[in-house]
Amino acid sequence: MAKLTVSIAGVDYDRTRAIFDGTIGIEGCETIGCAMSPEEAFHRAFRYQEFDITELSLSNTMNLVAKGACPYVGIPVFPSRLFRHSSIYIRADRGIDRPQDLRGKVVGVPEYQMTAAVWIRGILQDEYGVRAADVKWRNGGLEQPGREPRVPLQLPSEIELQPIPANETLSEHLDSGRIDALISALAPSCFGRNPKVQRLFPDYRAAEEGYFRRTRMFPIMHLVGIRRSLVERHPWLAVNTMSPTSRPRSCATGT
Asked: pLDDT tens across 106-151, in order?
C-alpha cells in the first residue's frame, strides 16, 4: 500500500527538529517538512489551510472550534508552553508600579486574541483583579504596520479595542508614549533602548515561579492540528502523529 504524503509546518524547535531533519517520521506517511516562524505558520494555516499537519495558535483554534469552523482537528501535542509574566511592557513614567495600576491605562497588543494575551488577561484578572474591561486596548503590528487579526473576533461592548493607524506600529507608540503599556510575545525594539520602557515584572522569573506554585499551571501556547478532512478519511493519522517513529535518514523528505 502506498504511503500517505503529508505536509508538516511549524517551528524548528529542539523538540520538533527530528521531524524536520527526517530523523523520525509518521508511520504510514511520507512527510514534507516546512519549518517557519509561528506567525507565518498560523497565517498560512488559518487563512489558506495550506498544510496537512501544522502548529497552531491555541486561542485562535479554540475560537474557531467554538464557532464550528475550524479546518483542523487538534491533538494533545503542545510544542510551545511558556509563562508570560515577561511579556508585559510598561512606560515607567505612567505610575504603573504593580499590575493593578493598569486599570484605565491604554495597552497595546498585536492581536487581542493571541494566546499570550489571553493568558495574560487571565492572569491579570485571576491574580490581581484587573478585568479586560478595565483597560483601553489598542491593536496593530508590533514592528511592521498593518497587522490584521487572523481570525474574526466579536467582543462584548464593554471591551474597548481600537486599531492604531495602519501605517504605525505598537513599538513606535510605546516608544513615544502614545500607549501606556504593551503585551507582546516578542520584546519591542524600543525595550533596552528607551529607559522609560520597562517590564511590569522586572524579576519575571520569580513571578512565574510563584504563579506555578500557586496554580500548578504551565501555560499552553501552541498545539498541533491535522487537517479535518484527512482525519475523517484516515482516523489512524491522529494517533500516529502523536507517536512518531525512528527511520533511516535516507527515507526522509523535507527541510
From this structure: 999 999 999 999 999 999 999 999 999 999 999 999 999 988 877 7
What are the CA-CA distances from residue 159 to residues 23, 38, 154 (Å)? 48, 27, 10
Residue (of 24, 10, 26, 34) closest to 255 by Cα position: 34
In which order are the strands placed within the sheet that holds 136-139? 160-163, 136-139, 106-109, 181-183, 88-91, 197-199
In angstroms, the CA 226 to CA 26 distance is: 13
Q: pTM of the prediction?
A: 0.89
Give the whole-angstrom CA distance, residue 10 versus residue 42: 9
- Residue 248, classed as helix, strand or coil, is coil
For the chain, helix, strand, coil in percent to 5 are 35, 25, 45
What are the structural domains of the chain?
Answer: 4-82+220-251 (3.40.190.10), 85-215 (3.40.190.10)
